[in-house]
């Protein structure tokens, strides 16, 4: 009852509703008049390209004209001299020894190859010992001293080999090792890149022909033996190769 009352009241106020009697039709002429002309679009597009083109060319010219400051700075830095470049070829091919040492037995293969090809006129042996054993506390900290030196000492690895050993226990340990270098003098001072912790060690050149020298080298390279000169038991070793 209330719905009919509202419909009749609406009809009296708004009048009788009329529905669409004809379908809307598309007027192409009016649609075309409302669209921008193609010439206008081309003109606007062309003006944008003309504005952008000089900017792109300016950027390229600026890029070409800008000096390469980084390249100039690098070129001005003098290259480090390699102390090994002037040395003649040797009968000991260190790369081949390292291959045998890492993949084959040390006592039966690697060491016999080393002594058979060792050229005392080109290569030298050095015994290095850590200067401050009283400062060594925990063995893992002492071992980190060796590892840290090896990690920072990267340049001479192609022309050097060493076995460094940590002896003893916590608060009673020592560090020493045998180095092989392709020079006759102390190698570390020859290049700034090699001067890594070397001052913490005493270095003594070894005579390959002296009594007991091959035994010393064998013990350090194989990590086996009495190590009578040390007075402490073997704890662990590190190889630089």
TrEMBL record:
What is the name listed in the Swiss-Prot or TrEMBL entry for this protein? Elongation factor 1-gamma-like
Against InterPro entries, the record matches this protein to:
EF-GSTs, EF1B_G_C, EF1B_G_C_sf
GO terms assigned for molecular function = translation elongation factor activity
The terms describing its cellular component in GO are: cytoplasm; nucleus
Q: Which organism is it from?
A: Heterocephalus glaber
Which PROSITE patterns did the record assign?
A: EF1G_C
Signal peptide: which range, if any? none
Region Disordered: which residues?
35-63
